[in-house]
Amino acid sequence: MTANVMAVEGNTLFNWLLRLGDNTLVLSHRVSEWCGHAPVLEEDIALANTALDLIGQTQMWLGLAGEVEGKGRDADALAYLRDAWDFRNLLLVERPNGDFGHTMMRQFLFDAWQNVLLNRLKDSTDPRVADIAEKAAKEAAYHLDRSRGTVIALGDGTEESHARMQAALDALWDYVGEMFLDDDVDRAIADADVGPLPSSLRDAWDGIVNATLNEATLTRPDSDFAQTGGKTGRHTEDLGYILAEMQFLQRAYPGATW
Amino acid sequence: MYAQMVKTARVGVKPRDEMTEQERAFQDRVDANEKIEPKDWMPDDYRRTLIRQIGQHAHSEVVGQLPEGNWITRAPTLERKAILLAKVQDEAGHGLYLYSAAETLGVSRDELIELLHQGKMKYSSIFNYPTLTWADVGAIGWLVDGAAIMNQVHLQRTSYGPYARAMVRICKEESFHQRQGYDIMMKMAFGTPEQKAMAQDALNRFWYPSLMMFGPPDQDSVHTAQSMAWKIKVATNDELRQKFVDQTVPQIEYLGLTCPDPDIRLNEETGHFDFTPPDWSEFFAVLKGNGPCNKDRLKARITAWEDGAWVREGMLAHARKKAAATAAAE
Fold first, then answer.
1. What is the per-residue pLDDT across B173-186, written as a single tens digit (0 to 9) for each?
2. What is the pLDDT of residues B95-112, one digit of tens each?
3. Which domain holds residue A37?
4. How many domains does chain A have?
5. What is the pTM (predicted TM-score) of this model?
6. A residues 184-243 near B, CB within 8 Å?
7. Which of A9, A32, B105, B136 is positioned for an S-S bond with B131, CB 3.0–4.6 A?
8. Inter-axis angle of helices B65-72 and B44-63, nearest 10
9. Residue A48: helix, strand or coil by DSSP?
10. How far is B12 from chain A (nearest CA, A)?
């Protein structure tokens, strides 16, 4: 552990790692809801693959969070035995799937952000963080490639697909701003060069998103309004249902091993 | 076995003296264990039977995502969830290989899907049973994939080249699936009393439906002989069923569970287990559409297809625009 990392208070680092792990955990859950219901078999495979990658990232982020916390909680304990107010994911990732276009637009907005973030995290002063970012970045780049291609194809496709993609973008836009919001946790992390300030990711994200929307013939919503709260544990009504489903077995049969 | 009651396009084996010269030459190649390839001449009945068989197998892989998918969002640990996601992803991949194999016989994937949705093609009866507890996910891997492998191992030697090659890939993945299923069962059977009860309940519900997967008894299976002569079926229903029972009973004992068949016992003379056959009237009812989940499964697939129409059309429209732009630029 480097001197810089020591400068970050354990609880701060723990909370910041939860944000990373909860994002991938909750998004994976949403994506996996598609299993067997996608528009075409290739998409069933791709969605399952995305959900699988995100679970792998969750295991790494939450595993490290548990280690940093030092109270004997592993990734499973953190995933399955916390209530909604202890979750730190962005509201964006818990939004319901909607139609396939909505799901892929959510994925694209997240993938663009995650790629920019992971590329910065590769330079983290905490080698454990840099190591996870290195592994996750390869998958994330593939996810972005795919979600970006889908947004372009469906935005540009037919009148109906265009209208559906624009509706998805408009509906999800309120959940974009939270990705770039700085708070005390972020500032402490940035001061120690463990991770970037979220606000510093915006320009690169705008570059990817604007170019993609342009190619997709979609109109970027003219609004800065942002729904917030996920990063500090105040969520939408949706998260409680996700957890009720996801945590059912662990809650109903405490102490069992599976 | 994911193909059941596949109607051979004719009843009984065509006698050699009734064959045309072309048919005789074809049968000679099959008898010599040569692989038949897409561009080779083949009897129409062979082609039609294979389309039904491979199509039914492909549909089974696709519909088979649903009962397991039912538990993905409730998988009890991150690792279990990851394994199940990987498994269901494999099943969808098997569907793709098999539709591709069927396409080499001159039928498109969309046509086959259309026939499934119209109820004119079937998928395996087993997927019309519900997954009620997490142990069912284990039971499916152990028993259902186990039964499927019994048949598919033989089909690696089937006479039609693309089908045989698809089977080689599928078998590798299926044996991993079976192991993960048994691993879940071990955790449950050796776990808490509630977990063991779930494991027993899953075995009770999946035992007879698994035996049904091999299809009706040989005496009632009018299509077997011709399919075996063509080597698109390599062992009979009863042979495979017996092999499955012989393999599975010791596994049940190892788990400390009880086989739901009270009369199952090792026959010292034959060296095989004697067992009670499944209730065939239930099997035929499920095939006719009257299983616990037939209507829900088909509805889920039709809804996915119909709701996805705009996506497929959008993708195609974009591809056409891009192709036109590229052509214009050249």
1. 888 899 999 999 99
2. 999 999 999 999 999 999
3. 8-252
4. 1
5. 0.95
6. none
7. B136
8. 10
9. helix
10. 37
